[in-house]
Here is the input.
Amino acid sequence: MKALTALLALTFAAPALALDLDRPGAMQQLARDNPAHYAKVEKILSEAPYRPYASMARWIHTEFNATDVGASHLLKTSYPAQARLSFALDGTPYSKTIYIDAPGKVLPLIK
Here is the structure.
């Protein structure tokens, strides 16, 4: 039971320990402290909203060698929709709320 509790605590604590890129001045601080990560984060944040949502996490993992990539399946109902994106570069966790601009699909009604 203790192991399960510890696992759950780590699962939910990891995003809380991430560098919140929504915080004012976070990107400027990242550019100053770690220019290599800043370049990768800038590219991720500029391209991720236009990627198909279903394959965005895989793209971030393979293109940038990121770990712990997570894109929330709970979308905020705004226009455009918003989702929470988290990932780690070289063991440093990051998180950001992004807008999902990828086009949706129109599916026929099945009777």
About this structure: Helices lie at 2-17, 26-33, 35-47, 56-64. Residues 2-17 form the longest helix (16 residues). The mean pLDDT is 81.
